[in-house]
Design brief:
The protein is mostly helical. The chain is 63% helix and 3% strand. It has 29 helices and 4 strands.
Length: 732
């Protein structure tokens, strides 16, 4: 038997580990700043690129794709080489993967605070960056598959199955959710509208959690937990059932994010059924991980690596039990739009992803630098302070979520809402936000302790960048099944067939749900009174997207008595047919805005954006004063309207040709309305006089950003008229 020598590439693993720690600290710092913004809403007063709406997507992207993403690559590149007994297929592709991913992260860190966003959750980056993501991801997959094809180990271990499924599914999700029509270098519109856009987004959004935050980490669990425990995985058969059932079922579950919305009932119900089914494979994986530790539980007392991994797997089990429970309609009716969801998400992110990453780092670094960990005591302290941080974060958010739901739905005996003012529900949970900020601070402190511990460990060790290894060459065997070989045994040595079957498994659910929703018109009943946005309203909507308003405000009134009483008539599918993208939201830090149009005066909206506390005492909304001062560049509106026409929005040639005139007329009317407020007149005229005396350019109010935003807000929910019998007028 020929024994071949080769070298593992540790350099690429080290690079991804360094990036994991760097971006982990950055992402958590941004998250902590956002947590304190709930307590001190004007802490970044007047700085547009540090406003809550712009930083929130930066936090989620930094934690998911920068921190967790780099951890995935580090673990995959380390384990793949050792499981397949070969160096990665291409060092060039490895480095392309690393540097390309870091450039994408930097691009996100620049563009999101500047307001360049699609507003689609976990997919906020604009089209040039989406193209870069696709290119780098293909490079990663090419390298992974090339490595599999040149392997010296015939059998593909379960971790490799999960890596392959992750590559294929994330590629499919990213491409189809990111189909958008570019308008300019950093502006695009989703090709889907309204209900269809919501379905595609949450097919992507839920499965980004499934196939970016779960399946690759399950692969890492199947490799690193047995390694750290020095025990074989508990059950090979259970791993087979776990893998195939998980990837098939998960892809169907996205609609449970849209229960009681305008999504067709059949799609909602499909999402519920498959979400409940998810408990079985998810807990099968958790059990397989925990039972691997049989016989080594005594080590857990002293070994920080195993501690982190045990809590990570337990956190996975908790989150994957809670997720299906939240998909039950009666539970979802309470939890959705509340802080309960924030707690749920962070149990998964902090415990499952965070702790498994920490455990992996503590195990990997001493191995790669041929030394021992600098301080086991600090590692154990990190574990306990991190665990306390998770508890202090999650439990108050559960309490806040229950409190919100109960207060939102409570009625007086006379049928009126007990808490008619939404702000009453906000002020009640401020103590919970304090506890969350403290919990997040503790978790970040633990992260910083780990960074220190790792740096000192690296300094006292010696890096082995090209680690020598040897293994027998792979001999040829029959491509057909041999006697006594099960189908799955055969499949585990046929990576191409394995990948094809995994691809088929993940495509079925998406096709069954998405294709009928897009092609069968009866899913979206037409409402003839719903018209396209005027040019000024379209520009105002883009400002609404730029400022991240959808992160705190929903535009989806569910058919509950409490919501109809509080916000107005429940949402209809036909209202959103011209919404590219949809803006239904997923969290109510503030009230729903679907029926806000005409509810308040133009002056109220101006004052509210300039100083929210002046119109809403106790509000935790930050000020958006730059909207009042900044001139609005509306020169690109014709291009935006032409793009909308390509997407099916019925603007006529005359509408596009007269867009500038239409905007001027509508803006002048809003300016005229603003003049009805004597306080506005005094301030406005004083500003004009100051500009004239100091030789500065003065921007007429009609040309400022706030006027466009007011135009959009005043349009919301005004397209339909509801008769006394509850029917929508002009409904075809």
């Amino acid at each position: 038997m020929e024994i071949q020598q080769f070298r593992y590439d540790n350099k690429i693993v080290q690079k991804f580990l360094y990036a994991t720690m760097l971006w982990g600290v950055v992402g958590m710092l941004v998250g902590l700043l956002l947590a304190f913004m709930f307590l001190f809403p004007n802490v970044t007063d007047g700085i547009s690129w540090l406003s809550f709406g712009r930083l929130r997507p930066l936090h989620t992207n930094a934690v998911i794709f920068a921190f967790v993403g780099n951890a995935i690559f580090a673990g995959v590149y380390y384990s793949t080489q050792r499981l397949l007994k070969t160096r990665m297929f291409s060092d060039a592709l490895s480095n392309f993967n690393f540097w390309g991913w870091q450039l994408i992260i930097v691009a996100a860190a620049i563009t999101l605070p500047l307001g360049y966003t699609t507003s689609k959750e976990y997919a906020e980056l604009e089209w040039p960056i989406d193209l870069a993501i696709a290119l780098v991801w293909v490079g990663f997959g090419w390298n992974l598959i090339g490595t599999i094809l040149k392997r010296r180990q015939r059998h593909l271990y379960v971790a490799i199955w999960f890596y392959l499924a992750t590559f294929v599914t994330v590629a499919v999700l990213h491409i189809f959710n990111s189909l958008e029509l570019p308008v300019s270098a950093l502006k695009s519109y989703s090709v889907y509208a309204g209900v269809q856009d919501a379905l595609v987004q949450w097919w992507y959004g839920h499965n980004a959690v499934a196939f970016f935050l779960t399946t690759p980490f399950l692969g890492l669990m199947y490799y690193f937990v047995p390694k750290a425990a020095n025990r074989p995985i508990y059950s090979y058969r259970l791993s087979i059932v776990h893998f195939w059932s998980l990837i098939f079922i998960y892809i169907w579950a996205g609609p449970h994010h849209l229960l009681y919305s305008s999504l067709p009932d059949w799609a909602q119900n499909l999402g519920v059924v498959f979400s409940i089914m998810l408990i079985a494979p998810s807990w099968g994986g958790m059990i397989n991980g925990l039972l691997t530790l049989r016989g080594v539980w005594d080590k857990v007392r002293s070994d920080a690596t195993l501690k982190f991994m045990v809590v990570a797997i337990t956190g996975y089990g908790m989150a994957t039990f809670e997720g299906p429970m939240l998909s039950l309609k009666n539970v979802n009716a309470i939890a959705h739009f509340s802080d309960w969801i924030i707690a749920h998400v962070h149990v998964g992110a902090l415990a499952w992803n965070g702790f498994l990453t920490f455990g992996m780092i503590y195990w990997l670094v001493p191995k790669m630098f041929k030394t021992t960990l600098h301080s086991k005591g600090l590692a154990n302290f990190h574990f306990w302070i991190g665990t306390l941080g998770i508890i202090l974060y999650a439990l108050p958010m559960y309490v806040a979520g229950f409190t919100q739901a109960l207060m939102w739905k409570e009625f007086n005996p006379d049928g009126t809402l007990v808490y008619g003012n939404f702000l009453e529900t906000v002020t009640q949970i401020i103590p919970m936000y304090w506890m969350r900020a403290i919990g997040g601070s503790l978790f970040l402190v633990g992260m910083l302790i780990m960074v220190y511990n790792v740096i000192v460990t690296i300094r006292k060790g010696s890096s082995v960048e090209d680690e020598l290894a040897e293994a027998p060459a792979l001999s040829r065997v029959s491509k057909k099944r041999v006697a006594g070989e099960t189908f799955h045994n055969w499949l585990e040595r046929r990576p191409v067939q394995l990948t094809i079957l995994a691809t088929v498994a993940i495509l079925i659910g998406g096709i069954v749900q998405i294709v009928p929703t897009i092609l069968v018109k009866s899913n979206i009943p037409t409402i003839t009174s719903v018209k396209p946005y005027t040019p000024l309203e379209l520009e105002g909507r883009d400002l609404y997207i730029r400022e991240g308003c959808v992160g705190c405000h929903s535009q989806m009134i569910r058919p509950f008595r409490s919501e109809v009483e509080r916000y107005g008539e429940y949402a209809k599918a036909g209202e959103f047919v011209y919404d590219h993208p949809f803006l239904w939201g997923s969290k109510r830090t503030g009230p729903d805005l679907l029926r806000i149009g005409g509810k308040y005066s133009d002056n109220w909206h101006l004052n509210h954006m300039y100083d929210p506390q002046s119109t809403s005492a106790g509000s935790i909304m930050p000020a958006y004063q730059w909207l009042i001062h900044d001139e609005h560049d509306r020169t690109g509106v014709q291009g935006k309207m032409e793009a909308m026409v390509k997407l099916g929005v019925p603007y006529s040639d005359e509408d596009i040709a007269n867009a500038q005139q239409s905007m001027t007329e509508q803006a002048e009317q809003i300016e005229k309305n603003l003049y009805s407020d004597p306080e506005f007149v005094r301030t406005y005229e004083a500003d004009k006089k100051y500009a004239q005396e100091n030789g500065e350019d003065f921007v007429e109010m009609r040309n400022r950003e706030i006027v466009s935003l007011i135009a959009y807000l005043q349009r919301l929910g005004t397209d339909i008229k509801v008769k006394d019998n509850g029917e929508v007028s002009q409904n075809q």
